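Checklist before submission:
- one chain only
- standard amino acids only
- sequence pasted in full

Submission:
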Amino acid sequence: MNPHITPNFIQSKSITHESDLDGHISLSLRHLSAEYLIFQDPAMVREFLFPCYLTWIPEIKKSNPFTVIEMDSDGYIGELIPLWIEAGFNCCSPAEVAASNDIVEYRRIYGKKIGYRGGIDKRTIAGGGKTVKEEVLRVVPPLLREGGFIPSCDHGVPPDISWQNCVDYSRLLAKLTGWL
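Returned file contents:
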């Protein structure tokens, strides 16, 4: 990717570009939001970030129209998703439940215009047992059935998740996705 496409004020450690898999590009705009709020008004995102998005996203899609262009943003993303869809992003993560994100509800609102990676409440994984099973069964089957969803913990795996709870959670996901 041409580093001169992106304005310097945005490029300075705000955007990372990963191309680990052929056809998958993940772009991270960290800390556009926090728990229950966004740091930038959607109008500011439109004014300051859209020119950048609208410069390079079409270029990426021109080279491979099947590319996953993923936005990784912490915190509450509900007001940002429509902007990301308009800009050309087709996936977002991690969709933190503790920040009032609900990807089942977002799928109802936005349909398959955007996919999701994450969305399983890390607190329920830490709780284990019935708590995690209810959360996984609430989120995974409806989204998995429609596609455009990679189930995973809604952020980094915190240290309060026991090994056994992690194994049980992984086993449940494996059963739901057909791996077991």
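Reviewer check: The longest helix spans residues 42-63.
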